[in-house]
Design brief:
alpha/beta, seven-stranded mixed β-sheet, binds S-adenosylmethionine
Length: 193
């Protein structure tokens, strides 16, 4: 295990998940997904950790996150990268997440309320892309917005269950992908549902 992985694991242990939940707070340490309103969920913590480690974030990286949700995944990533640009289609969820992250002093996060299937063209390219909703296929726009040598973690498949993919773009722009594990996420709303 590298030094960075160790630091991420330590931060994961220290981060109080109950801060990202309004209901079910007493169950924050249970390794399960819970509702956060608007039909959305805060993911199971062990999976959020696994996704963060798989993304392999670095201190100079600019990261695009699709699906801010509660902000928990954002809070796990933000201390290990230069900047997180997070997109969420439900404004109320994003406002709550913004407040929580501000209170935690995470000021390297930029917020956009909108459709993540468009990525965030004005801020592209991104060294890392984290998608936390299930897409039917990998959005072309996100491939385009991934920098050379970039990595993306994205669940791809039908609503009943998805492959969590690690997508890697090499220095020449060629794409390869591998399966990290099998997951069940809420749908990516829009063209890629
Ligand atoms: N990472 C979040 C956390 O730690 O709490 C959990 C995210 S939740 C599983 C998925 C989120 O993706 C939801 O908040 C949902 O509204 C958002 N979402 C779904 N489709 C989207 C889209 N097209 N653009 C932006 N956000 C989207």
């Amino acid at each position: 295990m590298g030094r960075q992985d160790e630091q991420i694991r330590r931060h994961f242990q220290d981060l109080d998940r109950s801060l990202f939940m309004e209901d079910h707070q007493e169950q924050a340490s249970v390794d399960a997904a819970f509702p956060i309103g608007h039909g959305q969920t805060i993911s199971q913590p062990s999976l959020v950790l696994q996704m963060t480690l798989a993304l392999d974030p670095g201190p100079e990286d600019r990261v695009l996150e699709i699906g801010t949700g509660s902000g928990y995944q954002t809070a796990l990533l933000a201390p290990f990268v230069r900047e997180v640009c997070t997109v969420e289609r439900i404004g109320e969820l994003q406002e709550k997440a913004r407040k929580r992250l501000k209170e935690l002093g995470m000021d390297n996060v930029r917020y956009l309320e909108g459709d993540g299937s468009l990525g965030w063209p004005q801020m592209a390219p991104f060294d890392r892309i984290m998608v936390t909703a299930a897409a039917s296929r990998i959005p072309d726009v996100l491939i385009e917005q991934l920098a050379p040598s970039g990595k993306m973690v994205i669940p791809v498949g039908p609503p009943s269950g998805q492959e969590l993919l690690l997508v890697v773009k090499d220095r020449q722009g060629s794409i390869s992908q591998s399966v990290i594990t099998y997951v069940r996420f809420v749908p990516f709303v829009g063209e890629y549902q």
